[in-house]
Amino acid sequence: xxxxxxxxxxxxxxxxxxxGQGARRPYRAVRxxxxxxxxxxAEVASRPVLPHEVRVDVHFCGVNFADILVCxxxxxxxxxxxxxxxxxxxxxxxxxxxxVSTVKEGDRVIxxxxxxxxxxxxxxxxxxxxxxxxxxxxQEAATLPATYGTAxxxxxHGARTQPGETVLVTAAAGATGLAVIDVATNVLQAKVxxxxxxDEKCKLAMQRGAQFSVNYSRGSLKExxxxxxxxxxxxxxxxxxxxxxxxxxxxxxxxxxxxxVLGFSGGNIASVPANLLLLKNISAVGLYWSRYxxxxxxxxxxxxxxxxxxxxxxxxxxxVGKVFKLEEIRLVNDAFLHIMQRKxxxxxxxSLK
Length: 353
Known about the structure:
25% strand; alpha/beta
């Protein structure tokens, strides 16, 4: 995806932000009009809220690898063109429907959508917004839904990680990788081996709380882990890379170890030999974070409340790697390129202000 887009910068429309103001002006939104092509910024007509809905003035939106997959037609869900990407946001409630009881105008919230979060305004069901504690900033809160939601689900629900256990996390300097390190170390009191593809990324992972690091571009991940923990292996693997790295991580597991597969950022999906699972009584679990919103909403909501609580209590320290602005569409496309070219560390955000 190229970062170059033809066209003029759009004039900003300042919206009438009060509730119940009747006709509303258009707002700006990132638009995918053609798959595998540069994104655009367009003015979108604002619509009335339904009784159960909330209108949010979006301040920050997370930029995730999944957003890139959606815009390339490679994600599990394929929205009709044109569409606005973006699955998570933070902002301030502008207006509530007549049946809304969970939040009120002026509340600061985080929210999740399947799509449409990369816009100045987002309308969503009241169930899919959560109030932000006073001591948590909107920027900090925007890092929580996808990355920390995934990390907490993977560690607590998928792997059932216990205090003192050793967790091996791949792609450790990415947004979710750093969230896994944060939660495993500071909430669950586990030990973490951070595996990443460069010395710089390994250094960052160590600075963010990992006890050990392995640069898997330099040699065998399995052998490096063995040198750190011995032949017994690690208790938990959280893998986001796939391919050979996933298989080496799998072979690094201890007796009754657990591996949680979160994605395939390396581009290849590993074929797991079942005998590896059998010989050590290993459990292999896949985790698709947003699916819980449909299949087990109570758990989905509980995990997001936990993320907010951990942040409020100072147990976790989200790391924002880079913030891009909506002021120029070039910068929006640069945000996607930043992730695709593996330059990103930590959370990448889009600022709508």
